[in-house]
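Support case: user asked for a sample of complex input and structure output to validate their parser. Sending the pair below.
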Amino acid sequence: SYDLNQPPSVSVTPGEPASITCRENIIGRKTVHWYQHRPGHAPVLVISYDSDRPSGIPERFSGSNSGNTATLTISRVEAGDEADYYCQVWDLDSDHWVFGGGTKLTVL
Amino acid sequence: EVRLVESGGGLVQPGGSLRLSCEASGFSFGAHWMTWVRQTPRKGLEWVANINQYGSEKYYVDSVKGRFTISRDDAKNLVFLQMNSLSAEDSGLYFCARVEFCSSGNCYSEAFDYWGLGTQVTVSS
């Protein structure tokens, strides 16, 4: 099976940048999407197709994908960014849509 | 405004069944693939099932194959998840989501661009 590995948690102070990684063999050859999920809210697509920002998502959010690592970066973290973040790909070999284990972003 | 509202969750005994519904509004429902995703404490978000815009292609995560069935009613803008032989491992918050439109019709790499708030499923005796 195709497993996407994310760090369980990332902590950052307000105004500082935060990076969340999603690692798997040759993930750079796949299309990666990123979702933000705050408890009690619907998940929100924050980055699609590796680095595209959907309408309404702040410019502070960006994404990249190369080699074995995809990365979600929040340039200047705000308190409202505190949430769980998930990467997601479609695995051609299994015809399965796969999520990473999720990273809890804590704003100190 | 795109809106997705899930319903049908609840408490069910192991081995029991539930049918989840998702009512969609604010977009051309018949043009989109739809998906069910669940959130569990153990796995976080887990993709469960997808259905194409015609209802002719259905995909399932291995752990639910043969037990769950995804379907849709385009006349009523509804997507369903019939869940049978439920076990404790199926407990979680079940989300319905829209798959981004793709002109080719083969929407494998597209993102899940709108989500509902979810409906809770608890399997316990």
